[in-house]
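Input record (one chain):
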Amino acid sequence: MKKIDPTVWKETGYIAVWMLIFSVLMQAVFLIIGKWDYTVLLGNVLGAAASVLNFFLMGLTVQNALQKEEKDAKNAMKLSQTYRTLLLLVAAILGAVLPCFNLWSVVIPLLFPRIAIAFRPLFDRKQG
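The corresponding structure, as predicted from the sequence alone:
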């Protein structure tokens, strides 16, 4: 197995930190509106884990694609996207089917990485 690039770890860590922040906020919202129970917490864990894993796998795919020819890299990226989308779909289906998960608390964290990425320019230290 190839060594995982430090950038992949760094960016996945960034997403994981934001995932934790947004998850705490989501738990608070469920608590405030009186809809919190253990299924919200379990659903949040499932959705957050799937999201962070998706981002990490995307980083690995990009790392590996950089070492391939353009056509092979495109095919690898397409295949990775298909599998990663399936991963998120399976997480959402589990959240919908199994009663131990609150569906909303599974699905909402799937959006958190996009929000974290949108916030990135605000916290990027390289920009003056």
